[in-house]
Amino acid sequence: MNPPREADHELEDRVARRLFDLFIRVGLVLGLVWLCFHFFSPFLTMMLWALILAVTLYPLHQKLAQKVGGRQGRAATLIVVLGVGLIVVPTVILGSSFGDSVHGLINGVKDNTLSIPAPPASIAEWPVVGKKAHAAWSQAHADLPGLVKSMQPKIGELAGKALGIVASLGGGLLMFLFSFVVAGIMMAFGESGGRAMQAIFERVAGVARGAEFAQLATSTVRAVASGVIGIACIQALLVGISMVIANVPFAGALALVVLMLGVAQVPAAIVTLPVIGWIWASGSYETTPAIAYTALIMVAGSVDNVLKPLLLGRGVDAPMPVILLGALGGMATDGILGMFIGAAALALGYQIFMRWVDDNPERARQPAAGDQRSMML
User: Fold this and answer.
1) 342-365, pLDDT tens digit by residue?
2) pTM of the predicted structure, to 2 decimals
3) Are 166 and 95 in contact (CB under 8 A)?
4) Smallest Cα–Cα separation from 88: which of 29, 170, 211?
5) Where are the domains of the chain?
6) Residues 255/236, Cβ–Cβ less than 8 Å
7) Which of 76, 90, 203, 228 could in theory staple to 184 by disulfide, Cβ–Cβ 3.0 to 4.6 A?
8) pLDDT tens digit string along 227-269?
């Protein structure tokens, strides 16, 4: 009886040593992963945004590289310089306008130099909220300091949030600039990076599906970035610059509203038409400038009608609620950059999940409905 017990004891010792050794290895690997994430996490958002930019602009980079003799680095440098000139400079102008508008509004409230016009009588006839809105507007017109004093805590909170938005816009713009530079480096080494990315997908999803998922990820990112987010950004920049040229107050804030409406696929006319009405009703513009500003704002607000047929038809067709939820959720958690990353990431996750749902091996093994009828007959 002793030899079997000794053999069992040796087997238990070997298993215990193996398990202990396995736990130590797993713990070391998890510790290394945590350390890598801890030191890389400050750059995670920037790197994700740079990757999205690189994937989106890589076809343009390849075309430009062919025209400059196949020099990948020079083509990437040209794209970065053009991107900074065409995107960053107008964004700085709009951000400065938004900050000046918020600063002027806060100073006007503090110094009691802000005047509110009398409300139209038709507002009182609005259903549900008409009488309350008319009463609040009338009080602001008659006694703005008293209204501000009664709402001091809420106004202070709103002012803090507005200044926080201005600060986040500045930080987001700086992050975008660094991301654009990193994206240029990625595009310069695009071929080796593409092979590495495909190898990662093959390691995760298998050799058979790795290339398919890599292509799916690339097409989804390009479709979301250029077809939805890109169009919304271009439209918001054009509308904002048009309002700055027309000296419309709060041009930066209105451009931000146009950006959110563009992501939600809501027409920019919700913003541009009231602005045009204000231009004509304010009495501050002569007839010729008013006509010119009206045409400029209308053209800028309808540019999406030209860009959507060119860009939305390419890539993967992701449902609009998925893109909207990703954009709004990303902006709520990580600001402006999170809007882009959230929309692209959620659309990509949705496409991969639906591809996995459609590829059901049990459904493939089931005979078709016509075959079942013939077997029953």
Assistant:
1) 777 787 788 778 878 887 777 766
2) 0.62
3) yes
4) 170
5) 44-116+156-188, 190-359
6) yes
7) 76
8) 777 788 888 888 888 888 888 877 877 887 888 788 767 788 8
